[in-house]
Amino acid sequence: MSTFVDMLTQAREHIDVLVYAAVFLHEAYPRLNDVLRERAAEGCAVRIAVGDPDSTNVQERGKEERFGHGIESRCRLALMHYRPLAGVPGIEVRTHATTLYNSIYRADDQAMVNAHVWGVNAYAAPVWHLRRSGEGGMFDTYAGSFDAVWETATPVREG
């Protein structure tokens, strides 16, 4: 968790989070929203994309992981955590309904990529720490994946 928090607190330009839920972030680091607000106040663009709990893909993922409605409830919980950030200047929060092959946590030129494994909860799957080392590498592939999902995502209203 410390690597993740270090990445976020040091970000100056971009923070992107693409997950179904990842409620462990707020559970392990209760100051997460404060850090995101601080980063945005200093000019960092923050984009958070959380799974739409009513989407077919999220529901299917729950069946595949034998997690039942757990993943849907975790998406709702994640939205509860992130909703207070909707409307904060520099921060955008959206929901997505895509099949998620990886969770992506980007901070400037670093990313943590949680590779999803069929039938396995994300917490038990491998995580890769990537650093941009030039144009067109693995980092850019995952950054492009985030952007593609982001374009399909629906903005979350304040509340």
List the strand order in the largest sheet. 6-5-4-1-2-3-7
Fraction of helical residues: 25-40%
> Rounded to an integer, what's the Rg over CA atoms?
15 Å
Low-confidence stretches: none
Largest sheet at a glance?
7 strands, mixed
Helix-strand string: HEHHEHHEEEEHE
Query: How confident overall, as mean pLDDT?
Result: 90
What general form does the structure show? Answer: globular
Residue fraction in strands = 15-25%
Number of strands: 7
DSSP helical segment count: 6
For the termini, the CA-CA separation is: 28 Å
Q: Structural class from helices and strands?
A: alpha/beta
Would you give an account of this structure?
The chain has helices at residues 2-10, 24-28, 32-41, 56-64, 70-82, 138-152, and strands at 14-18, 45-51, 91-96, 102-107, 110-115, 127-131, 154-155. It is of the alpha/beta class and 159 residues long. Strands 6-5-4-1-2-3-7 form a 7-stranded mixed β-sheet, with helices on both faces. Strand 4 and strand 5 form a beta hairpin.
